[in-house]
Design brief:
Elements: H1 2-16, E1 27-41, E2 50-60, E3 66-77, E4 105-125, E5 128-150, E6 171-185, E7 192-206, E8 221-239, E9 246-247
Length: 248
């Protein structure tokens, strides 16, 4: 996965270095972004800090600098605080394979956020109104679960592909998103990025009919918060007055 992200970043960089010209006019922006998030409220009791990587597709208006966009991000982390496998472990915390050898099982965080947003760029430079303070508000779907990762040589009947669903705590729901930061688009279009702080508030619920390890149904409403920092590198496509002309 990391190699694909590096390749995408490299391609964006290469295209950017070909993008000579003025940064004026309506524009379509493609951004790859990366960030670090800190869970709060209900999410904090289940997971530790996580990383996030995503893509944004935006439309930026000419003079008013209004932003209309679509955001899709993946969440992944290695700290899981909720032990959903306690019912399978002995007093030493060991889980056994079907052949009674020791199984190697790791718990990981996996999730995603996908949503729409509107925003505005407040230019700070007289000769470049495409660099300044960027704010945005959005709404979408926040989802997360516990990934149960078995060693290839391990086989535990309860944790087969279908069985894992009873332990993964799949949770999702409507979410709100806010971002404030600094955006820079150079006049010659060579350097285009943004960086800032993001807040996501998820109003979520467990979507599994039953948690197998407890034998209970979880219908509690959750408030899952993610507070973090996000950095993005942008590939801009500027549109001329003629509909069939695009500059990048």
């Amino acid at each position: 996965m990391k190699s694909k992200l590096y390749l995408l970043f490299f391609l964006c960089l290469c295209f950017s270095f070909q993008s000579f010209g003025q940064n004026k006019g309506n524009a379509i922006l493609l951004t790859i972004n990366y960030g670090n998030q800190f869970p709060q409220k209900d999410l904090q009791t289940r997971f530790g800090n996580n990383l996030t990587v995503g893509l944004n597709l935006e439309y930026l208006t000419d003079k008013q600098n209004f932003i209309f966009g679509l955001q899709s991000s993946l969440l992944f982390g290695s700290v899981v605080k909720e032990n959903v496998l306690a019912s399978l472990q002995n007093e030493n915390g060991t889980i056994y394979n079907n052949n009674f050898s020791t199984a190697t099982v790791d718990l990981r965080e996996r999730g995603s956020y996908t949503g729409l947003y509107v925003g505005k760029l407040f230019g700070l430079l007289k000769d470049n109104n495409r660099s300044g303070i960027r704010i945005q508000l959005g709404a979408g779907l926040l989802q997360h679960k516990i990934r149960i990762q078995l060693d290839p040589n391990s086989f535990v009947t309860e944790l087969t592909t279908d069985g894992r669903k009873g332990y993964d705590r799949l949770t999702n729901g409507l979410a709100l998103q806010q971002f404030i930061g600094y955006q820079h688009h150079s006049r010659n279009r060579l350097i285009n990025f943004y960086a800032g702080f993001e807040l996501i508030e998820g109003f979520t619920q467990n979507r599994r009919s039953i948690n197998v390890d407890t034998g209970l149904t979880d219908t509690a409403e959750r408030l899952d918060l993610l507070v973090g920092f996000r950095l993005g590198w942008t590939l801009p496509f500027y549109l001329s007055e003629k509909a069939d002309t695009i500059f990048y």
